[in-house]
Amino acid sequence: MFAIIKIAGQQFKVNPGQTLYVPHLDGKQGDTLEFSDVLLHSEDDKVSTDSKVTVKAEIVEELVKGDKVIAFKMKRRKGFRKKLGHRTHYTQIKITEIA
Question: Residue 50: which domain range?
């Protein structure tokens, strides 16, 4: 059994019991989430696009920082140098049920 769900504009293929990192979601550790934007789901080799399915998940860690990304801009012979960086925030969730 699997489902393809849409979270914050990104698609994820999930199975019950799976943990994954998704873009930062509001909530505390231990809170339960419900995703109703299911694009596709499979049950016993039957694939369907039924919109009545929901995926339930639990927040494992509320804030996880990703790797540092550096954006360096420079124009030669002009003395212009700019170094910018950021770390993307993620939330770790565990899929509990596809119903």
Answer: 2-62+91-98
